[in-house]
Design a protein that fits this description.
mainly alpha, globular, about 0% strand, disordered N terminus, Serine Threonine Protein Phosphatase 5, Tetratricopeptide repeat, 3 domains
Length: about 450
């Protein structure tokens, strides 16, 4: 079954959608004057994206109120597959944005209502490809919820299977180009937990750039993903080609690129600019932590301490970057070499990271554990497999059994290397060794990786 003809946008709606892709949100709203279903969808999308990219909480509150009002308007007409689908889509957009503003309960309830609408649509119209596509994405996203927020999903009755979700997404190909584009854009919001997912998300990047590479919204989304996935070089190239370069989230990305490249003065300039124009509570903790690190590298310890002490008083920890910054703010700023090596490592700059890592002389056991893990990862990424194995083994041996993730992940990486060498006995042994550790961070990532390796070992 093909995408229903009535889901194609009118000429005015197509024009509005193109304006949204070019980040011209005000003009897109202006031309969508009627009360048609897809006018509501596009206006809601426009408000939602403008609020996110401009970090504008006022726009978020206004857009959310209007979106709920529009949903009440369309609820008076007869239900059909397209109306249920659009209602679900609007709820998904605002749930994602609500979660960035720390409104977890609202986000969970909106997600639940969207889930019910999609599930109902899927049961009545199992061949409606947009529903199949989003219902699949939905299952995939729910399974990706961090462990400490699982209770919210459980409380509102959300259950999912990652495998089912991915299977649905794969079986819903050849949708209308607008839905296909949005699907690929949403894919980039996920953190890939397995090699296969990473490959699928990279393909989504390729699709977006091939089909819509001239649109600033697509460039922004892809560069956002590249930065998250340690691809600073490609993110930098894409951002330089954007027309809109002063939007808060674009400025934030520029700051991250400079930070990853250790361009201290430039990074300080952009993070300060972002803090000044950021109207939301998101990324404030993250920006302040990075400013603390940058001033440390610049030798200004007074400014570094000032930014570090401000972190607990500003913003919220709804998003991962701010949550991590809140946690790190209670720890002492690392020494010069460790700090530089961590920044380069997190940016995926393996050559320079190795150069600084080799200069570090660990004093206590936990420093040796971290150093061994990072050198193992660096050597593996640089193609030096035997050195990587040696470092990972040292890491697993020296790592304490609780509260530190280096040991269990070193074991998983050793299991992965053994699998690629077709040594199943060693792979099982390393996988079982990873279970000897407890109380460490990144449990959802760990469990996903264990599940993937266990499946390959069957």
């Amino acid at each position: 079954m093909t995408f229903p003809p009535s889901c194609y946008f009118t000429s005015e709606q197509t024009k509005a959608y193109q304006l949204i892709l070019n980040l011209d949100f005000k003009e897109s709203i202006r031309i969508l004057k009627g009360e048609e279903l897809y006018n509501f969808q596009l206006k809601s999308l426009s408000y939602c994206l403008e609020a996110f990219i401009n970090c504008d909480k006022r726009k978020y509150q206004l857009g959310r109120r209007l979106a709920l009002k529009w949903l009440d308007t369309v609820s008076n007409s007869r239900e059909c597959e397209e109306k249920r689908f659009v209602k679900a889509l609007i709820k998904i957009h605002w749930a994602f944005l609500g979660s960035t503003y720390n409104e977890k309960v609202f986000a969970a309830l909106e997600m639940r209502q969207a889930y019910i609408l999609l599930k109902e649509n899927f049961q009545i119209y199992p061949h409606h490809k947009p529903t199949l596509l989003y219902y699949g994405l939905f299952n995939s996203f729910i399974s990706d919820i961090p462990e400490n927020y699982k209770w919210i999903a459980n409380a509102v009755g959300l259950r999912s299977s990652q495998q089912t979700g991915i299977s649905m997404v794969n079986s819903s190909k050849n949708c209308h180009q607008f839905i296909e584009m949005e699907k690929n854009a949403l894919m980039l919001l996920r953190k890939p937990q397995t090699e296969n997912e990473g490959y699928a998300i990279n393909k989504a990047c390729d699709y977006l750039m091939e089909m819509h590479g001239n649109d600033d919204l697509v460039r922004f989304i892809v560069s956002f993903y590249y930065l998250k996935n340690k691809n600073t070089h490609n993110a930098s190239i894409i951002l330089k080609s954007m027309k809109h370069t002063s939007l808060p989230m674009v400025v934030y990305q520029k700051a991250l690129i400079s930070y990853n490249n250790l361009e201290i003065d430039t990074a300080i300039f952009y993070f300060k600019k972002f803090n000044k124009i950021n109207k939301s509570e998101s990324f404030k903790k993250d920006g302040s932590l990075k400013l603390a690190y940058l001033y440390t590298l610049d030798g200004d310890t007074l400014q570094a301490r000032r930014y570090l002490s401000s972190i607990r008083k500003i913003g919220n920890d709804a998003i991962y970057a701010d949550k991590a910054s809140e946690k790190l703010s209670s720890q002492a700023i690392p020494d010069f070499l460790t700090l530089k090596s961590r920044i380069l490592f997190d940016a995926g700059n393996w050559v320079d990271a190795k150069r600084f890592l080799l200069l570090i002389k660990p004093v206590i056991a936990i420093q040796k554990t971290e150093l061994s893990y990072r050198l193992g990862k660096v050597e593996y990424e640089l193609g030096n497999r035997h050195k990587a194995i040696s470092y990972y083994k040292d890491c697993a041996k020296s790592c304490p059994k609780q509260k530190v993730y280096y040991g269990p992940f070193a074991c998983l990486n050793l299991a992965e290397i053994s699998l690629k060498e077709n040594d199943l006995i060693k792979a099982r042994a390393f996988l079982n060794s990873s279970k000897n550790f407890s109380g460490f961070d990144f449990q959802s990532t760990y469990k996903a990786k264990v599940a993937e390796l266990s499946k390959q070992l069957q």
